[in-house]
Amino acid sequence: MKKYTFILLLLTIFIKIISSFEPNVPVKFARAKFGVLGLISGTMYFKYIDFSKTKVIAQFHKGFTISSNASDYKIRLVNRPLCPSFIRQYDLTSGLNYKIFEPCGSTTKMVGVFDFEINELEDLFAQISMNHQVLDYAEIVMH
């Protein structure tokens, strides 16, 4: 009987040790919901593709009314939401092709694939600016 108890104890310890190691699973999805300043309304989604690629999908319902030219707006990921400075690697402007519908200022669906890991986006903000003036921003929330 003692032999079986000892084997059962060893098996229990082994299972506890194995189950304590959690695999490092990357975040699969993140979201930034705009509207903090009330100028722009919409959502930006970040989807995990692989270890070095992230797909960005965005749709805006209003707010792009200052100019109907999409190239006038800058869409970036930043450390400080109200500061116009940005990290060049996180400039999404040229990778997101879209059109603006007048007069409401909504956009077509924006889609782009970028060379950064989704885990790098933690504690960053998505920001839309024009002429070095921040129009709106959103905190990136990991899921």
In spatial order, strands of the major sheet run 4-8-9-1-2-3-7
Order of helices and strands: HEEEEEEEEE
Give the helix level as a range of percent.
10-25%
What's the CATH architecture name?
A: Sandwich
Discrete helix count: 1
Helix vs. strand class:
mainly beta
User: Quaternary state, please?
Assistant: single chain
Question: What's the helix and strand layout?
Answer:
Blueprint: H1 2-20, E1 29-34, E2 41-50, E3 53-62, E4 74-78, E5 100-101, E6 106-107, E7 110-114, E8 125-130, E9 133-142
Antiparallel strand pairs: 1-2, 1-9, 2-3, 3-7, 4-8, 5-6, 8-9
Overview of the structural elements:
- With about 140 residues, the protein is mainly beta.
- The chain has a single domain, classed as Superoxide dismutase, copper/zinc binding domain (Immunoglobulin-like, Sandwich), CATH 2.60.40.200.
- Helix content is about 15%, strand content about 40%.
- It is built from 1 helix and 9 strands.
- Strands 4-8-9-1-2-3-7 form a 7-stranded antiparallel beta sheet, with no helix packed on it. Strands 5-6 form a two-stranded antiparallel ribbon.
- A hairpin with a 4-residue loop joins strand 5 and strand 6.
- The termini are far apart.
- The mean pLDDT is about 90.
- Keywords: Signal.
